Amino acid sequence: MGDETVSFDLDFERPLARIEEQIHKLERRGDRLTPELRGELDRLKRELTDRTRRLYDNLTPWQRVLVARHTQRPYTGDYVKLMCTDFFELRGDRRYGDDRAIMGGMASVDGQTVMLIGHQKGRDLREREERNYGMPHPEGYRKALRLMRHAERMHMSVVTFIDTQGAYLGIEDEARGQSQAIAENLQVMSILRTPIVTVVIGEGGSGGALAIGVSDRILMQQHTYYTVAAPEAASNILWRDTHHAADAASAMKIGAPDLYERHLIDGIVPEPLGGAHRDHQAAADMLKAALVEQLAELRGLPVETLLERRYARWRSVGEFTGDLVPLSRHER
Is residue 49 located within the same domain as residue 139? Predict the structure, then answer.
């Protein structure tokens, strides 16, 4: 099953948790297990694997949101440690300060040097506060932009990892130019003369995610989501409360399969059985293989071709191909 220290602790996983508890009780007996109990232990392990596979192959959109938010899910910093042989972190935006909600630097992935930039949430309370729960300030986006421009000068590919509820909405952030920082990133990334690959590794929330997501290839890990507004926010807008978040998640089509079907992303990176939080190393291996493949394809393209395809790709986002149905007077 992968990382045995991570229990099935989500509400919809309760049937799996009960089986897991039975397995732990039998395993604690150690050498005192009778042949009959050993057979029962093997049967329970097979049942747990089979039921986990069936459950995770048929997650609802809201369940996928909960998995993407799991506190033990690997973050950017975890993937750096598990995927990269070298990593030299770069800090500061050279204007105001260093925002720890965005981490980035030069990394070696399968022998290639890339500029790796991603949201970082933090594990314990101290680190979460230090990282502002993965919600960047404007200086975080300016730091990301500085690193991307450096990558362009050094002819390095850019890899970005998205995992945020969204950009921080504080008054001081607006005073320091939050909207301008995000807009500038969108503009510069659209014409950056080097390959860019983006992976959604957890939450992909609004402009805070898009600010490091204008790229040549967008991948999503299997149990992640990417949306213009969090399901709770959409529920509050439509129903005036957050109790319909599950309905909003279903209606908005924010999961990887839905976005891939609509050609809004380029691929889905598989996760270990039970989600990336169950086995960090296996998740990192799958992600690394996908990245290496995408980077190899993009590196072979002339820069002008790369920019033309990036422009065409983003111009086609949201293209409507169906028939328009006039609204009735009542619907208007």
Answer: no
